[in-house]
Specification:
With 197 residues, this protein is of the alpha/beta class. It has ten helices and five strands; from the N terminus they run E-H-E-H-H-H-H-E-H-E-H-H-H-E-H.
Length: 197
């Protein structure tokens, strides 16, 4: 039976870098954030989102305008909860279909809000990537996709590192070099392979 190991971390922690390191070692990785984006093209999901957030969130090409949706959905906790109620069951169903097709001893399921959504309860273990918030902010601002205000908004919506630490089965520290992180990932992969065999 394939073990589903969750991978999470706050914005800028290096979670996606860790996921890529696992993928490079030929461990199957499912990115639930990417699945969520893909599901925005599903007619069922689009209808529910337009009902909840207004028909003008759909572009003339028939796609959901993610920026407009984010601005409306993340302005308060109730609206964020409405978005999650629409997307999370669909994401969980996709994940279950994907898991049925896997034959590896363990797989990585990456998601930024796994603890907040309760999705971690479906997993067989949880890896948390931790990095100091000042380091994370620097990384995010260097990417150029978010400004400081957006970074702070995202931080407020995500749970804090104390909560992540409390729920973690495995912790990766990412305040140092990529080589140091890679070493930790290789060691953890060996540990997970042993535990899953």
């Amino acid at each position: 039976m394939t073990r589903a190991i969750a991978l999470t971390g706050g914005i800028g922690s290096g979670k996606s870098t860790v996921a890529k390191m696992f993928a490079d070692m030929e461990i199957p990785v499912l990115d639930l954030d990417a699945v969520g984006r893909e599901l925005l093209d599903s007619p069922k999901v689009q209808a529910a989102l337009m009902h909840a957030f207004g028909t003008d969130i759909q572009t003339s090409q028939g796609h959901i305008d993610r920026k407009t949706l984010a601005a409306r959905a993340f302005c308060d906790a109730d609206k964020t909860a409405r978005l999650n109620a629409i997307l999370h069951p669909e994401i969980a169903a996709y994940e279950q279909q994907w898991l049925k097709k896997q034959h590896a001893s363990y797989v990585i399921i990456e998601a930024s809000v796994l603890l907040e959504s309760g999705g971690v309860s479906r997993m067989d273990g949880l890896i948390v990537v931790l990095a100091d918030q000042s380091v994370r902010k620097k990384r995010v601002l260097m990417r150029g996709k978010q400004n400081e205000a957006m970074f702070n908004q995202i931080i407020e919506r995500q749970c804090d590192d104390n909560m992540r630490h409390k729920h973690a089965d495995y912790i990766l520290h990412n305040d140092g070099s990529l080589q140091a992180l890679q070493q930790q990932v290789v060691q953890l992969s060996e540990q997970l392979s042993k535990e899953s065999s």
